[in-house]
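If your schedule permits, I should be very grateful for your opinion on a structural question. Kindly check, if you would, that the fold set down in the tokens agrees with what the sequence suggests. Thank you for your consideration; the sequence and its tokens are set out here:
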Amino acid sequence: MSNYRAISLLTSFPKIFEIVIYLRLYQHLIDNDILASEQFSFRINSLYVKATHKLLNEIINYSNKKNGKWYIW
């Protein structure tokens, strides 16, 4: 136990304060439409799966517009 070190150096109050500030800042960014719709990371309910789906969907739509031929660049 002599060389035990805590994972976090913050006490409970700063952790709670950090969460409150994060939630207020995040809500401000959402309410004022500051974040780009292409920004998938650091957003609630926005996973890499959505980004991958959007990318694949755009690739398929583009390839369908090219006379039905598949082009791999």
The helical segments are 12-31, 48-65. The chain is about 50% helix and 0% strand. The longest helix spans residues 12-31.
